[in-house]
């Protein structure tokens, strides 16, 4: 059987132009998709890097922790409070009090009231750590002229106390009152400060053990 083959037509110039245009479009789409994948990947890597940096401790926070650790090593272990009486003590010899006519002398000796506030709630370690902080803070505040809240914050930052440990900065006449959060390892120590030039003062106070900073006991009026 004889097969009749038709003539094969040669591509015209118009077909060449259409084929070239189609190839160009396909190549452009492939490059666009590739570029999109690279941009997405780069964006994800950048966000991950930023997150990692934000989780790293700041230089200031590291320096503050080193300060706290140094004071802690110089103080006794937690748990002992020599300021709180542990039991009944034998009364010492006392001169008899004069009794008014018609009054009956007390049958039992009068004992002093137990301590309250920071003296009862803070242990020997807290008092030791407090003394270290107070010494350096008072010395710096006494040298501060015109102790406004902004200047007091800057001074405390310079001593290594980060903003998260400085609370309730408030102008008080010619000085500034503030609190320092010194809680560490379950402790409740804080400091009540008054920046007022030569008469600056810092005394211990007691804060809640956990959670946001809140003073529960202090002796400063």
Could you walk me through the main structural features you see in this protein, from its secondary elements to its overall organization?
The protein has 221 residues and is an alpha+beta fold. Strands 1-2-3-4-5 form a five-stranded antiparallel beta sheet. The N and C termini lie far apart (122 Å). Mean pLDDT is 75; it is low at 11-56 and 88-92. It is globular. It contains five helices and five strands.
Detail the topology: elements first, then pairings.
Elements: H1 13-55, H2 59-73, H3 118-121, H4 124-142, H5 149-158, E1 166-172, E2 175-181, E3 189-195, E4 201-207, E5 215-218
Q: Tell me the quaternary state.
A: single chain
Largest sheet: 5 strands, antiparallel
Please tally the helical runs, counting DSSP H or I stretches of 4 or more residues: 5
Low-confidence stretches: 11-56, 88-92
Radius of gyration: 38 Å
Q: Order of strands side by side in the largest beta sheet?
A: 1-2-3-4-5
Fraction of helical residues: 40-55%
* Overall outline: globular
Mean pLDDT across all amino acids: 75
Number of strands: 5
Please trace the helix and strand order, writing H or E for each element: HHHHHEEEEE
Give a quick summary of the entry.
The chain has 221 residues and is α+β, with helices and mostly antiparallel strands. Helix content is 41%, strand content 14%. It has helices spanning 13-55, 59-73, 118-121, 124-142, 149-158, and strands at 166-172, 175-181, 189-195, 201-207, 215-218.
